[in-house]
Amino acid sequence: MLFSIIIPCHNSKTESIKNLMHSLTKQGIDKDDLQVIIVDDNSSDKSYLDICKTFEDELNVEYYHTDTDIHCPGNTRIEGMKHVKGGWLCFCDHDDYYEDNALKQIKIYTGNLDHTVYVISTIMHSVDPETHDYVDEFAHKSAWLHGKFFNYNKLIKPYNINFKKDLVTHEDIYFNSSVLNVLFQLNTDLDYLDINTYCWVNDEESITRTIRNDRGYLYENFEDYIICAAEPFMDMAIKTHRIEYVNQIMMTLLHSYFYYEAAVFNEGQAEYSDVLEIIRKFVKNIQNNLGYSLSDIVGFIYADVVKYYVVKGDCEICVGKFISSKSFKDFIYDM
What DSSP state is assigned to residue 154? Predict the structure, then answer.
């Protein structure tokens, strides 16, 4: 078995799952090359499973389920991970789909490798849910699961990489942070392959938006974001102070500032006083564990040491727009 795809489902719409399953039949690979793992997240409506079963002649489909009422994709993926048989692991949401021949291209690429590759990162697009036209391109997003192929036998299994149980949001960030943590230890990087493989349907009725409310996953579960983005790197940062680990922690802090100011802009400062306290706790954690003063933190961020400022432009939007008197430097020194 070459590929295993884990698909979390919760009250999935029949048309969406039909579109996804149909896309998997158009991959240009043998049936025995692909294991399709459907994990039901304790759905009240399981009618979508009837659609899945119509594809069993063309696809190797396996069905599993969770019994909790937490409803989070991380738990369903944990269940799916117990049953992986393929050498390359990938994840797909129930309302997304793959480009034609995407897996064939990965099969050809991996078949010609003369060295060990741990993660292959490809290009995904957001698509209109009605027309399926491309809306935006997302090339090699480090925090996203989609469009990535993980070497199960060389990376995921031996290093015991998995999702965090019962985590309501940001489970993909936690998984990818855990992957990056191991890649840093191995002194290697992702393989970046500029091919289109994954279509992300920008659906207002996705599981996260339906259950958590639109963007509630960001503001209402703010501490989850910090845990997922920084926690996997903290131990190695404490032990080694290597720039790669410290950088990920600082980038999380910078993103936190951006999210907080965006939330304040939308809802008002009083509404997010608890978020500010979470960020303060995170700063104290950095100070206590890494021995960084506030000046050290500011100096690190502004030095742009490893060119991680993909988010720098985003954060500059805050200055003069969300809270006009605050820069990131002011924000930190006010801690």
Answer: I
Q: Is the pLDDT of residue 275 over 60?
A: yes
pLDDT for the residue numbered 310? 44
Q: How are beta strands 97-98 and 60-66 bridged, if at all?
A: unpaired
Q: What is the helix (H) or strand (E) element at residue 61, kind and residue range?
A: strand 60-66
**pLDDT computed for residue 314 by the predictor:** 47
What digits encode the pLDDT tens for the residues 11-30?
A: 999 999 999 999 999 999 99
Q: What's the rounded Cα separation, in Å, for the pair 322 and 330? A: 14
CA separation for the pair 288, 296 (Å, rounded):
13
Residues contacting 320, CB < 8 A, separation 6+: none
* Structure-block tokens of residue 293: 């003063």
Closest by CA to 73, choosing from 43, 51, 47, 99, is 43
Q: Are residues 179 and 275 in the same domain?
A: no
- Specify the pLDDT at position 86: 98
Helix 171-185 vs helix 243-267: crossing angle, to nearest 10:
160
Percent of the chain with pLDDT over 70: 83
CA angle 247, 250, 256 (to 5 degrees): 140
What average pLDDT does the structure give for the chain?
85
Alpha-carbon distances, residue 108 vs 28, 30, 59, 196, 199 (angstroms): 11, 13, 20, 15, 21
Q: What domain count does the chain have?
A: 2
Q: What is the pLDDT of residue 306?
A: 40
CB-CB contact of 300 with 246 (8 Å)? yes
Query: Across the strands, what pairs with 149?
Result: 120
Residue 16, domain extent: 3-212
Q: Shortest CA distance to 52 belongs to which of 18, 83, 19, 26?
A: 18
Q: Rounded CA gap, 267 and 146, in Å?
A: 31
Last residue of a domain, one of 212, 237, 268: 212
Q: What does pTM read for this prediction? A: 0.88
